[in-house]
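Q: My labmate handed me this sequence with no annotations at all. I'd like to see what the chain might look like in three dimensions before we decide whether it's worth expressing. Could you predict it?
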Amino acid sequence: MKKKNTPSLLGYSALAATFVAVGSEAEGQVIYTDIDPDVTIDLNGDFFELDLNGDATPDFRLTKRFLSSFNPTIYTTYGNVYSGTIQLNHIYGTALGSNAILGDITTFGFQYPFALDSLAWLCEDGEWMEGGYQSLVYSYGYKLNLGSSVVSYVQLNGDGFWFGGQTDKYLGLQLRQDGEHYFGWLRLDVAPDNIAFTVKEYAISAVPDSCIQTGHPAPDAITGVWPTGWNAYTWNNRLVIHTGNDVTGAPFRLVDLTGREVLSGRIDQPLLQIDTDLPAGIYNIMIQFNDLILQRKLYLSAAF
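A: Here is what I predict for the chain of 304 residues:
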């Protein structure tokens, strides 16, 4: 891991070159890019810009920001008086242009990006947040000068899904370009002290409106061997999914041969039947079941 506190233009230029040249690895229609070496940001005002699709235009930015009120007089419950600093600590995410980050918006309008686990699905559904000042981390506290060059930090409160430190979690990203939506992610760490963050890797689906999973699904996780009692088939233009007596809420996706998602949902009953208005043709169905992705080719014909 290498610490990098450079102006963002330099960091961005190296990142774009990595994407276009040798750093990318295509697996199917998802492009993975390793950030090598990792980039750590921990100084006030430093930021990291991500060009997700390699077109020389930054799409997302992560910023380290301290906001301080200097030289207050702080009184402790023991009657001691110290000088110090009241400090607000932030790691902000910004979706540049019309792009968006997956997260949660509070009733007061505060935006908090999710810290996603590996193999989470990124699709159109969800709260996709535009703009800046999206708080991965927010904390508020005192920095006390105790004398003799001794400094003490007292944290009063904090918030954000990344608060308290996260390792190898994922930021969900939505790139909006020419009327199409492309889904991707950025893998990063936030230190336990909530000050530094380290970016490691990112990925984007090359197919518009196609869902993507965070991380690298293991090749043997995709299987055509289905659990006993499970089945998926078509009847004319009807999609039928049968799970025996299991009602799992498992997510499913139907994609065409280009990888574009045409239908998705959750299995909320043992026999799920969906009438579609899709063109006749071959489609792939994928169902997430525990740690597996069940997959099968299906043929939809036109309705009578």
